[in-house]
Amino acid sequence: MAQRLGTNYESSGPLDQRKLIRRAQRGDQAASRELVDLYKERLFRFVWRVIRNHHDAEEICQETFLRAFAALDSFNERYRFSTWLFTIAYRLSLNHLRRRQPITGGNGLNDVPDNQPDATEILAASEQAKRLERLIWQSVDRLSPSQKATVLLFYHERMSCQEISKVLDMPVATIKSHLHRARAKLREMLWDSLGDQRPQMRIVGAG
Predict the structure, then answer these.
(1) Whole-structure pTM value
(2) Over the range 31-68, which residues count as b (16 or more CB within 10 Å of their CB) and which as e?
(3) Least confident of 35-44, 152-161, 182-191
(4) What are the E-state strand segments in 42-160?
(5) How far is CA 78 from CA 15, 119, 133, in A?
(6) How far apart are alpha carbons 150 and 86 in whole angstroms?
(7) What is the Cα 55 distance to its own chain's centre?
(8) Measured on CA atoms in the order 154, 155, 156, 160, is the torsion positive or negative?
(9) Which domains are delineated in the chain?
(10) In whole numbers, what is the pLDDT of the chain averaged over residues?
């Protein structure tokens, strides 16, 4: 994983988003729908990756937006709107996982069926690249929920460790530790999975 997977950028500038948020706070439904459209796909990918259930991920995303807009007057413009949304979504996802199964600090979720379609699969230039992509995501799926969320937010959402600490409600040092341990696990799992076809792999640092 020599680069951040599936890099995404904010769909509109901070000033435009602040204007949308202020309009939504005044009850402008068109502005609320635009905010939903800006984030619904990214939010769904994140939630689905954490809980690995399409129907439940949709419900959690809907609940996330409902809660966000219900409390929109309390939104602090010093933070990014995406950080606030992902914070709500992550807590709802954790609650869902706690109801479904115990969360431990071990290897994490190991019950992901191999034939489940990858909602974020990126078109690759070769079969080897496609296989490596699949192995990376399968390895991510075997991390603990908090490690998985850290990796997704850092590599996929391009959040800083400080932003991730707000989303996961953990100290920055813990986030950096999660990234370090997750990269070590990913290297080990990918190394074992690739066998004789092992490329030169380097997992980038937390920066």
Answers:
(1) 0.66
(2) bbebbbebbbebbbbbbbbbbbeeebbeebbeebbeeb
(3) 182-191
(4) none
(5) 12, 32, 36
(6) 11
(7) 17
(8) positive
(9) 9-103 (1.10.1740.10), 121-199 (1.10.10.10)
(10) 76
